[in-house]
């Protein structure tokens, strides 16, 4: 099957969907000629999001970060994962998430975040469109483990008043956690990434952790250092302007 | 000028903290685990003098009944006897992994604190626990992630043998029929008799024997194990 490697090609396109805000007046009166006026210069708010990998030996795939409205979620616990979440959870491939509609802005990191390391991503959103942000990244040495932020409200944040949070690991539920050779894309195995087949319980849930070959899973390629506990990431959000 | 504003806000905060405000709340509990059930859930609002459980202390007999066998009647009696308001069993039975139980509206009366418990099954004496979470006075939707605790009342031998009564060793049953049998038992002599964070189950991959009747690929978890959403009306 298709093998999406965890060398994580640099994000193809940083899709920044320009916010279209040229909607004219809510026209009850279609006969009025359109009013020509220069729209006021857009006031932007810029946010930096720093992600720190708290795990012992789980590289995080290049982080996908997006701004969107308050109704958008990347996943729902207990519901089947979207294909976009399945792609990032099984293979670290953010392209499905980048292609989502109704993102106000999005950016994907260029490299994996190695254990103990941090990366800062920057997102600019027109002030009137500031609502929620989401973030997602794969735990590379798992079958389909991921972490992220799921529709967190940043409207009303003050400049230079950081918000800190820590987040847990989720299991996309799309690929059985066999830990077997050839099934894990990270450096522990360099196996397969995304595979559209779904052979697990098919709903998103809290990741139960990995077992490893040292703890009784005979076919596992994982070692004790690949185990993890929650939380798996620390996140710092700062509005810079 | 600045100081007076501060003192006014402190005064206001002080007033709010002593006044008890009746509120209507709705509570939803989502099972975040891969393959464990929650037994009937007890949702309780109570005053600051009551607790369903207390980490670092011995479990009460009522808590032990809940943690070892899923029986919440005694805890409910204790809470309501102390003026608390409760909702019992919002899932109307077991709450499977990935599922959410939504409570009916609960009038908190004079009670400012929310606690929630349910046994994690199949385990010896694990339970999900929210202890004395202060109910906000401001209307809104609040999310809390909660952990699995170990009641400290029974060794985690991981043997499924129908044992659910307090003091009887063993696990009552595996609701999804995905447990094993004939395990030798997980024995390490640990003796923490106080309520503590559950270390998680071990399990194995041998359904016909081995150390554990639990399956390491199905029954393990990491905390948090439940997502609680409280809607204050």
Automatic annotation (TrEMBL), chain A:
It comes from the Bacteria. Residues 1-26 form the signal peptide. Keywords: Signal. Pfam families: Spond_N (PF06468). Residues 60-175 form the Spondin domain. Gene3D superfamilies: F-spondin domain. This is Spondin domain-containing protein. It comes from Shewanella gaetbuli.
UniProtKB/TrEMBL annotation, chain B:
It comes from the Bacteria. The keyword GTP-binding does not apply. Keywords: Signal. The lineage of its organism: Bacteria, Pseudomonadati, Pseudomonadota, Gammaproteobacteria, Alteromonadales. This is Spondin domain-containing protein. InterPro entries: Spondin_N, Spondin_N_sf. Residues 35-155 form the Spondin domain. It comes from Shewanella gaetbuli. Residues 1-22 form the signal peptide. Pfam families: Spond_N.
